[in-house]
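Handout for the seminar on molecular recognition.
Each group receives one record of this type.
Step one: identify the two inputs.
Step two: read the structure output and locate the region that could contact pyridoxal-5'-phosphate.
Step three: write two sentences on what you found, then compare them with the reference statements printed after the record.
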Amino acid sequence: MVKRNVLLNPGPATTTDTVKMAQVVPDICPREKEFVKIMRELEAGLLNIVHADPAVYAAVLFCGSGTINMDICLNSLLPENKKILIINNGAYSSRAAEICEFYHLDHINLKLPLDRQPDLQAIEEVLQKEPEIALVYTTHHETGTGLLNPIREIGDLAHRYHALFAVDTTSTYAMRPIDMQKDQIDFCMASAQKGIMAMTGLSFIIGRKDAIEASAAYPTRSYYCNLYLQYDYFQKHGEMHFTPPVQVIYAARQALKEYFDEGEEAKWARHSEVFQTIYNGLARLGFQIYIPQEISAGLVAAALYPDDPNWDFEKIHDYCYERGFTIYPGKVDNMGMFRLCALGAIEKKDIDAFFEVFEEALGTFDIRIPVRQEG
Ligand SMILES: *Cc1c(COP(=O)(O)O)cnc(C)c1O
């Protein structure tokens, strides 16, 4: 038995013991047919999660954390003399803009308020004014705050102006139901340690094959992180171009089996129940939550630090950590916040147990309950 920790940070998530143990396998060379078969099945499962027709879409696997997907999508999908539009309303879309700057990609960084859904008219105006936009990029769920972006509407706009639509779904994939076609997505992405509740080190982009094939003619900006190169190699050989994270792939295979056993709807219902329990627990203690529930993705609650001289996030964190619960700081500049997330193999009863410990921590450090919020 491995000690079970309840991770309330925004990934990596709590995993099942069966997923942890799936990594212990006989040594194998990833060029073996047996391993190629596992890779092909993995691709089929990853497509199935977002209802992507394998005739139209491919899943392209990479060895790295989730940011590698952002890097690859942005650096690989920009044709010559065209522009990227970044819908920026959070830390993750800011990271996408940083990647564009880093590669000197021609882009428009459309900065919007962090605490509300984007003004679609403002997006449309940019698309009207800038016909060179070939790729619209947005974050489905800004994990720093919990904000949900209306991807279907943004995707519809992108397509009306003949641009591809890429969505960072790292913190919704395999949690909130996604349908590539209905949600107007050309490219989405995630990493194994979040929605599918597997291990870190494996990331994947799901995208339209015709668009990936067209990108073979675009300027190349990275060798290891090029979408077409990896796609082409996998299509031909069923292998990643370079050494894959072998044991992590065995864990992902087990995690997909558990995903389909639980089922899309039941899994989303479980995450929703966990989130509601988090939300209610924070509200009961008087915490103010940054994003109203109506525009939240229903997976991350960011609570403002209380106005209490005794509040010290580190002390509360350490108290909870010693008892098997991990809480996480916020990600909005100049605002003290912490986050509790509903990712992973956890249930309502874990959150009930957490709030017992959390309330005990507040008491131990003399923080008044309900907490003071000056607003
Ligand atoms: C977790 C996450 C990422 C990837 O972060 P890594 O630290 O590179 O794994 C990217 N986008 C979003 C929205 C995320 O939540």
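Reference statements: The mean pLDDT is 97. The first strand starts at residue 6 and ends at 7.
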